[in-house]
Amino acid sequence: MTGFRRGVRLGVDVGRARIGVARSDPDGMLAVPVETVPRDDDAIARLVALVGEYEPLELLVGLPINLRGEDTASTVDARDFARALGSASSVPVRLVDERLSTVSAHQALRASGRSQRSSRGVVDQAAAVVLLQQAIDTEKNTGSPAGTPLILDEENL
Description:
alpha/beta; Nucleotidyltransferase, domain 5
C-alpha cells in the first residue's frame, strides 16, 4: 500500500433529484453506503453535517463524463455542486471520473434480485460506493489520489 493516505473518505454521487453518499473506513478497505440526500436547498448543509460526523480526509465527487470523455450538462451540474460543497466545507474536494458508476450500481442491484423500482432509493448510494471504491483502488494501485483537486478561486465562485 505504498503512498496510500490513511483516513476516511466520503464519496458523493450528484444526481438531479438525489445525492448518494458513501464512506470508506480509514484504511480504505471497504466503501459502504451512508445515505441518500434529497437534492434540495438543504443538500449542502446535510453534506457538511456528514463531514462533521465522519471527519473525512477528503470528499470525492463523481464527475459524469460521457463515454468519449466529454462534459455533459450533468458534468457541469456536478462541478457546480462540488464548488458549492467545497466553499461550504473545510475538507478538500476531488473530482473523480465516474463513468458507468450508476450503470454498475444498477447491474449489482439487479444481480442481487432488486427491481429498478425497488432500487430507486439506494441506487444513488450504490453509485457513490462504486465511485469511492474505484478512487480508493486507484490510489492504492498508483500511490496518487484519484481524480483532480477542486480549485476554488475568485473566478470559480
